[in-house]
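Retro notes (design track)

What went well: tokenization of the new backbones is finally stable.
What didn't: we kept losing track of which sequence belonged to which structure.
Fix going forward: every design gets posted as structure first, then sequence, in one message. First example under the new rule, 544 residues:
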């Protein structure tokens, strides 16, 4: 067989291998998808999506995250019903299909590196865990990777149609999470690093390539305008308000359309700046170095193989003779995220690792493929030491990833699980949903929260963010009660029960009020639940 034929055969094997990896990745993400109870952040998204489905009213509010998940889950709930599993299904599907994005980089990666990239995106434990989690971090990272890959594909294949894909993916990334602002800075730094690397290797060739790209962009003016229009249209559809039963501007209300368009563009920018930037001048800032330290520590615990492989590949590529811009770009993107992501976040959580692991997946894939080639060359030459070294290193990566996935992704939600954050409930809450569903009749208040910690004077004000801290103290229960179709109310103390003509079938309070409530709630069954990994225990009374 000629070398060209062999190369063609190798290339023919890449796509089936990547597709197979994506199929397995999808499977590991959907199995037991509803087994872990909702984290408080997930409960916020789920609850407000249920209210959006009920009223038809929606408005972008930066405090509640990007609008993408609300629109997608509203459709999912309408089609499949609202459960923990169906709410997470869109993120799980996107995470399972993420390995296919590796094919966008085939012009910059070798065939084995492309397959390795798909494998890293499929099985990196932190990506598996947060593909099974209702937050915008994984969608943001996924769409950013697709946007960059589509832009690369457009240039390398001289195919301007990919610019539309890049623009739409970029708009979806912006609508996924406010962390998209951090990505813009990281991508700018990474692009400069890639250009610098290419310039050092061959300044003349780089100058010629830049001139060719400029000429191509001049010839693509129409395609660029079309792509910009596609991206803008996608952003407007996602950020524009929906009037529903309210009198505000709505995307589908002709008379209010100008207001809706303004709200989806300049209005969204002003909101984001006001909530995420300007308000931080008044007590919303934090010390940078402790956040950076903790972020790095989290990465070393939940994603050590990816970090180690990426660092090895970056250093070997940079100083091994012929640096590659693709390795420099993603290596610097990942390195920049170590500083930028902790700087912009307000709460430090393990999910921040996603924003570093996804860009580092590319150099990590290069490192993994390099190890495999190192071992194959040893096998071809009979070098047992080389084969043993490569085998041990690859086996260490696989064992660590497998152990982390088994213990963290599918393991219990407790303080030993490093993927879980404090606001992750430690008890199964599905029995509570079943009990509440059995007694909630929709005739007045079905669930009564007792205590100043949970009291809000106007319950309907909780249907849209921002909401009072007291409502936030109830999380994740509002999601589960809304799923059960229960109406909620609240009182400030146990004595207030004596002033009610009747007590609702479900009463919720802090666990330390159990004795006082048992004296008043004859015929109720009490069960305690841990609503976080520690120090958040409530008692729920349900009528027999």
């Amino acid at each position: 067989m000629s070398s060209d034929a062999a190369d063609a055969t190798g290339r023919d094997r890449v796509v089936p291998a990547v597709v197979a990896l994506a199929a397995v990745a999808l499977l590991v993400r959907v199995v037991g998808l509803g087994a872990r109870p909702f984290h408080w952040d997930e409960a916020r998204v789920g609850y407000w999506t249920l209210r959006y489905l009920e009223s038809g009213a929606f408005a972008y509010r930066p405090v509640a995250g990007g609008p993408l998940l609300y629109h997608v889950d509203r459709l999912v709930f309408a089609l499949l019903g609202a459960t923990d599993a169906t709410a997470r299904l869109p993120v799980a599907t996107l995470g399972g299909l993420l390995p296919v994005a590796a094919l966008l980089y085939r012009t910059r990666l070798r065939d084995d590196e492309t397959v390795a990239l798909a494998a890293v995106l499929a099985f990196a434990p932190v990506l598996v865990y947060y593909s099974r989690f209702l937050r915008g971090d994984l969608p943001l990272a996924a769409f950013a990777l697709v946007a960059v890959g589509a832009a690369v594909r457009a240039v390398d294949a001289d195919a301007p149609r990919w610019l539309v894909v890049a623009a739409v993916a970029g708009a979806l990334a912006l609508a996924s999470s406010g962390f998209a602002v951090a990505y813009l800075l990281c991508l700018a730094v990474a692009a400069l690093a890639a250009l610098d690397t290419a310039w050092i290797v061959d300044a003349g060739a780089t100058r010629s390539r830049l001139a060719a790209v400029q000429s191509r962009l001049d010839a693509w003016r129409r395609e660029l305008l079309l792509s910009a229009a596609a991206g803008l249209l996608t952003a407007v559809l996602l950020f524009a308000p929906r009037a529903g039963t309210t009198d505000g501007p709505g995307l589908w209300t002709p008379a209010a359309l100008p207001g809706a368009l303004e709200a989806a563009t300049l209005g969204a920018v002003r909101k984001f700046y006001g909530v995420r930037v300007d308000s931080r001048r008044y007590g919303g800032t934090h010390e940078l170095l402790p956040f950076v330290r903790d972020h790095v520590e989290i990465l070393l615990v939940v994603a050590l193989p990816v970090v180690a492989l990426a660092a090895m590949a970056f250093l070997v590529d940079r100083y091994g003779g012929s640096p590659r811009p693709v390795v420099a770009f993603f290596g610097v993107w990942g390195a920049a995220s170590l500083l930028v992501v902790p700087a912009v976040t307000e709460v430090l959580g393990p999910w921040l690792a996603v924003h570093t692991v996804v860009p580092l997946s590319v150099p990590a894939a290069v490192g993994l493929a390099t190890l495999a080639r190192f071992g194959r060359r040893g096998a071809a030459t009979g070098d047992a030491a080389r084969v043993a070294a490569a085998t041990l290193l690859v086996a260490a990566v696989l064992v660590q990833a497998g152990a982390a996935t088994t213990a963290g992704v599918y393991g219990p939600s407790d303080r030993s699980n490093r993927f879980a954050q404090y606001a992750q409930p430690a008890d199964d809450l599905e029995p509570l949903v079943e009990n509440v569903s059995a007694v909630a009749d929709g005739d007045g208040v079905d669930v009564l929260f007792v205590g100043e910690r949970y009291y809000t004077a106007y319950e309907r004000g909780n249907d849209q963010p921002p909401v009072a801290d007291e409502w936030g103290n109830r999380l994740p229960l509002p999601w589960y009660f809304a799923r059960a179709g229960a109406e909620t109310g609240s009182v400030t103390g146990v004595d207030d029960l004596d002033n009610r003509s009747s007590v609702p079938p479900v009463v919720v309070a802090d666990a330390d009020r159990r004795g006082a409530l048992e004296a008043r709630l004859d015929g109720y069954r009490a069960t305690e639940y841990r609503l976080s990994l520690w120090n958040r225990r409530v008692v729920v009374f349900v009528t027999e």
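Added context from the reviewer: Residues 285 and 321 are 43 Å apart (CA to CA).
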